[in-house]
Amino acid sequence: MNITFMTTDRKTILELPIVPDGIEFPSEFYQETMSTIQNGDITLIGNKQLLNVQISSFFPSVRNKYPYQKKGTRTGMQMLDVILSWQKAKKPVRMVVVSQNKTIVNVLVILNIVFKMEKNSDIAYNLTITEYVEGAV
């Protein structure tokens, strides 16, 4: 599986160097159950909920440090700097997830990150990814 983030103009692109197993991509709808006199309980299906994904992994301190990481990605500090700059810009980025040569997710998202510098200089992180939908308030 490949997980890539990019600015909407595609000038800055990040591919996660280490993609952990078991990432869940929920596809859920709002629903409401109502009681009626004639039909008993009925369920109403609403709109699709926003995608929320959690990823816990790490950014290697140097390129190609581990045999299982994606080749040619940025250093851990470079990855972190880009994500923090996106947060500072207050603009959504595009997330594209490809598995077995098929795009399974392609949405605008907001990234929130909690990170920790490890003793070996790698950067452990928890990334919370929330689908972004522009709308009027």
Write a structural description.
The protein is 10% helix and 47% strand. The strands form two sheets. A six-stranded antiparallel β-sheet has the order 2-1-6-7-8-5. By secondary structure, it is mainly beta. The two termini are 36 Å apart. The longest helix has 14 residues, at 76-89.
**How many structural domains can be distinguished in the coordinates?**
1
Secondary structure category:
mainly beta
Percent range for β-strand residues? over 45%
Number of strands: 8
CATH topology: Elongation Factor Tu (Ef-tu), domain 3
Report the radius of gyration as a whole number of Å. Answer: 19 Å
Mean pLDDT: 91
Oligomer: single chain
**How far apart, in Å, are the first and last alpha carbons?**
36 Å
| Outline | elongated
CATH architecture: Beta Barrel
Give the topology string: H per helix, E per strand. EEEEEHEEE
* Major β-sheet profile: 6 strands, antiparallel
Spatial order of strands in the largest sheet: 2-1-6-7-8-5
Per DSSP, the total helix count is: 1
What is the top-level CATH class? Answer: Mainly Beta
Could you estimate the helical fraction of the residues in percent?
A: 10-25%
Query: Low-confidence parts lasting 5 or more residues at pLDDT below 50?
Result: none
